[in-house]
Predict the structure.
Amino acid sequence: MATDSADSVVQKDRSMVLQKNMIAEHFKRLERAPESGEPVVYTFVPGNLTELIRSFDALPLLPEINALQSGMRGKSKDYIAEAERAGHSEDVCTYVKCDIGMLKSGNIGPTGTKLPKPDLLLLSYTGCYTFMKWFELLREEYDCPTVFLQIPYQGDGELEPEHRKYIVDQIEADLIPAMEKISGKKYDEDKLKHHLGLAAEAEDDLVAVLHSAKNRPSPIDSYFGGVYYVGPIFSAFRGTEEGVEYYRELRKEVEARVAAGLGPVTPDGSLDEQDYRLVVEGPPNWTSFREFWRMFSEEKAVVVASTYTKVGGTYDLGFRHDPSDPLGTMADYCGGCYTNLNMPSRIDMLVNYIKDYSADGFVINSVKSCNSFSAGQLMMLREVEKRTGVPGAFIESDLVDPRYFSAANIKNRLESYLQMIDARRQRTAS
Amino acid sequence: MSNRKIIIEWALGVYEDLHFTAARETLSQNPNLKAVGFLPVYAPREVIVASSMLPVGIYGGGDQIEIIRGDAYYQSYICHLPRSVIELAQSDRLDFLSAVLFPSTCDVIRNLSGMWQVMYPDLYVRYLDLPHVRDPEVGGKFWERELRTLIDKLGEVSGHRASDDDLRAAIHLYNEVRWVIRELYRARSAEPWRLPTEELYLLLRAGEVVAPELFLDKARAYLEAIHEDSPPMKDRSRVIVVGTFCEQPPLGLIKTIERAGCWIVDDDLLIGNRMLTRDVQTQGDPVANLAEAFILHSEKTSVLYEPDPDGKKTLMAQRVRAAKADGIIFAAPSFCDPALLDRPMLRSGAEEAGIPCIAFKYAENTGQFQQFREQAGTFSDSIKLWGGS
Ligand code: SF4
Ligand code: SF4
């Protein structure tokens, strides 16, 4: 999810300015943290417990976001090379290597400020095996405690009560005492509830934005634009006043576009005429993000729903943070993040998106880095095709390793896929 | 033929038989018995046996199966194991299984569990989320609850819900199994020429798919037989092989390493069969005992979180010392997240301790061993020349 300023990509709405300022301010605070004494907690997007972190007046920092930003800013290639020189395998997730390379190159963050060392590594083990190794690796670089929070996988399609209990037990036994220690503050449940209430407010507005794609034309692009929309809520700003303001503003703008019958703003302007409505599974490529988006927008293809924008929470499936059960709701949140869902649930999600958003087709972008997403996607493709009767397209790239983005291949693939959709339409019409 | 040869011939036959005839025969001889498949690395076999079921380790097809259907399920940048597991299933070689367990080894095996749910909806499929939190009151209780659920579910499949006494008997049986495996490892480390890894591996591999009682008989007999006609002692370097816990190297690769001049004196091969490092208590609550044994006494492996910040750094030196090894061969399956992400941490710890290391990648169906022969040969020579750790 991009928390970039976005101004290089699309023209500015007020929400974008807000997001840009929020992020810049956050990174300034992070840079000042060693002096200000605000504790810094490194954690991951899926299963991030931002409200709890904020309730201790600590600052979250998300290495995945830094890695994708490095990809967008053309720095990831060198960072990855640096990590591979240091012995990291070419076969593993490039987010990790990008982060390690950045660290070895001086740890300058996406906005050009120096990133502080962590006071705590909060290893929220949610939906991705690599997370465990990532923080075991980072732990070797920093002299700070690590809290491991195991989020059981929804192997049977739901977070079983004993799994929920396990998460709550860990938060109580390990995480809260660790937060108390690094912050010097007592756990304050009322404060946590306050942040959770703010989270739910923003989540309502985000869901309204995501659902707006059911309109024709869709006022948003739920993948390329979606990664900007989910940026604040997936990272440091869920459960904050700024987050609430951002989503209120974003929702207003999107509703105004619906009323005016306008499409989303893309790198080439407003996409009001939309020939193809697509659903996308898998993360985007960040190193050629703009070019990738253009391949869709030039063909007048708009993405009406995507699974990647659910890695930090499946709010559109109904989940909301519930201040009346603070620890339980955090457990439910973690358990429900997209990559923590089993294959049948992921397939159901795609099938439902295709139906609910009246999509013409679906595209799987399979990234080399990520077994959590990619292992099983070919079966998903066939299964979704079987259940919907809608053919899908399968393209391959990587998150932040530019060596694995072949523009010509992807463009060809996409164009022939869209031609196939045309041919089907003609057959149905005749 | 000597006893030793007879046993190894038997093991080789079981290893090469991708129709799992031995397991099928056990089922046909015991009409009430059902079979449960499990993928690497660790599944609580005691629970399976106590539920009147036969545990069957599923380790893919190695270099013996042509992948016809499996490649249609996986992109080129995913390891080889799951495609050969799919191949086995799609060619009806696993049709004797009534349930399959997918331990939380990595995201590939995790996602495979869901693929199985979609492809084989009539089969009982369970993802086994192993506990990473080593606090008995938190991780231990979680694992205990998971084990109780598994007992209920397997009971539904087999028609026999394991009683506490069934579980105690199964724990006792597997204490024996682990004891004999530890003895075999100890004997190999003491006199590796008497117990070459290509033989030990075949025996243990057979043990993954036959009834545990049968494996015990064979393993005990083999332990007795190793002095009968052991190959002559050869002066070779002593190495441990790290990273081979899931997708298995082809037998040819194991032979190549040893023939190139390296005795393997410790390894990660089939590590699930000795995951619990101590006997599990047979007194008291058997489920609590199994859970506690896992939380407090399991092998350190790449698939579990290492709570000790220095744990990765010091692990290789500890293992090298325990096995009196001279060096380490890091052998990882291509695209294997657990083995490859762990490698830089383990290797730098080893090198800081002055332990010579080499590293390579393989796939279960690797057919060319020349490069490995040269690498292992040079490694062995350099250890002999410059000394080991
Ligand atoms: S493996 Fe996938 S989910 Fe995990 S860190 Fe890498 S990109 Fe993210
Ligand atoms: S070989 Fe490695 S990546 Fe592949 S299934 Fe096994 S543990 Fe997972």
Remarks:
- The beta strands of chain B are 34-38, 53-57, 97-103, 124-128, 237-242, 262-267, 327-333, 357-362.
- Chain B touches chain A through 58 residues (CB under 8 Å).
- Residues A 64, 93, 95, 128, 130-131, 339, 369-370, 372-373, 399 surround iron/sulfur cluster (ligand 1) (CB under 6 Å).
